[in-house]
Design goal:
Layout (H helix, E strand, L loop, with lengths): L10 H13 L4 H10 L2 H30 L2
Helix pairs in contact: 1-3
Length: about 70
């Protein structure tokens, strides 16, 4: 096990892990670190924030496209 896997993940590490989870990929060393040292609440909160941002961007893109179409 490397030194990175022995420490608790930082907030940036959690955000990166959630982003990679959205894309469906994750390095095995980060996966191990997340499950051994991570706190589930951090991942849930960051995940919900990520979903909210995704939905907001999706709504903005749809509104932009509809405004171009004159609807």
């Amino acid at each position: 096990m490397t030194e990175d896997n022995k420490k608790e993940p930082t907030l940036l590490d959690v955000a990166k892990s959630v982003l990679w989870a959205f894309l469906g990929v994750q390095k095995s060393k980060n996966y191990e670190r997340d499950f051994k040292h991570g706190k589930p609440a951090q991942y849930i909160i960051i995940g919900l924030i990520g979903v909210a941002i995704f939905i907001f961007i999706l709504v903005m893109v749809v509104q932009f496209v509809l405004s171009l179409a004159g609807v």
